[in-house]
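Appendix B, example 12.
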Amino acid sequence: MARAGSALWLLRHELRLFMFDILGARRDSQRTGVNRKALAVWVILALLIHGFAFMALTDARLSSGTPPLTLLMTVSAVMAGVFTMMMSTGLNTSVTALFERRDLDLLLSSPIPSRSVFTVRLAAIAATSAGLYLFFLTPFAHAGVVLGQWRWLGIYPAIAGMALVSSSLSMLLTLALVRWLGVRRTRVTAQLLGAVSGAAMFLLAQAFNSPLGPALQRCVKRLLPLFAQGAALGADSIAWLPAKAALGMPLPALLMLAMGGAVFWLTARLTHGFFVDGVQQAAGAARVAKAPPGALRFRFGRGLARTIMVKEWRLIWRDPQLIAQVGLQLMYMLPLLAPLLLGRAVSLPALAAALTFLCGTLSASLGWIVISAEDAPDLLRAAPCSQGTIRRAKLAAVVVPPMAVAALPLCWLAMRQPAAAAAMLLSCTLCALNSALVVAWCARPGLRGDFKARGKGNLASTVFELLTGVGWAGLSFTLLLGLTQPGWKAAVVIGAGLNLLLLIAFAATARCLRQKPA
């Protein structure tokens, strides 16, 4: 047993909070503990991944010497993706540790040394960064042990080393932003950087399909001589150290652990003073609204619906964290819209499906903020006006922003193919409206600060949001397929009809399961 107040005791508490978070711990006053349904889902998922890993490694054999260069490049690409996702997780967790947990000022005023508090919090960030990827990747190590391929155990030191490095770099970057930009700007900047790093691999993978694809292919051809035997990036290069560690080579695995441990130790040793300063700034930062210039002015000429819509948009605009979290979804539009706007050949049915699904996703996110996370629902319910008008105004406030985002590609397409643009406009609008209605029916009341965890504990809303987006994307794909082909084929018409019937069934079921106000 760890002694109360020791670093191990504090670390056990941090890991316990992490496990309760990922296992869906109950937060009500009557029932506490781990959610058994969430635990069962994780166990079933682990068994499925182990089964897939066993089948994948049955015919795969690692040679005793240096792995071939193609295998090193493939594993390195996977490790690079994992590292960027770790950086994203580390940045978000560092922001939570400094600004959102609000327990560090209490810990620093306790008899526990500040260096121990910082080291434990940094270790918890590393464990958080490594936990998810160990869950998905270590089944291959376990399957390798069963099959007698012991070198797959190198996944453990490779992931651990990358987690230590990524968590240290994330904390250093967060502390540097606090020192440079201050507390308020750091919260938004760190979350934006986390979002960008998390989406970087997706954008990079899509870059070869974008207008930059030919230039990137020429650049890759010029770099090919560097990968030859004995060259700078040959099979013996230190650049493949993470891949060699993951493939079970003893010396690279030890070097990965040693490098991660050294970076972690130096970060905890040399920067805990900046950590204390950042916590003090976060604890002392107060948000004081500036008084508007000039005399107080009242404007009553907008009308009820317009006033509600402007109010909702203004509340979202005043919360940069929400903008950063919702805006991440817009980044995935860049690879989709670049070929269209630059006049390259593009599959209109695929573009219509992607744009429709994106509108539905944005509408569901904004719907949760506007409808479920309403700060004063009782005040609105007691207002001397029609509740139907309030609901319609809120739905309009949710649907208008996604349609404004989709307006640019739709206007560009309308100048070339008006019928296709009209069909895409109809599907995007109905998908956004349907997604907003699903949230209004099924979502539970919450706080704006719980935006990231809005799907926990409400499986029905999450499932119906996904089914609605996928259904409308499929219908949009079918409609554009019929418009771009000469004549409407029977299979296309039947597919569109069945898809529409499924959407009606999804909407009717979601309405039957709606949350009725008390």
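The chain has a mean pLDDT of 78. The first helix runs from residue 7 to 22.
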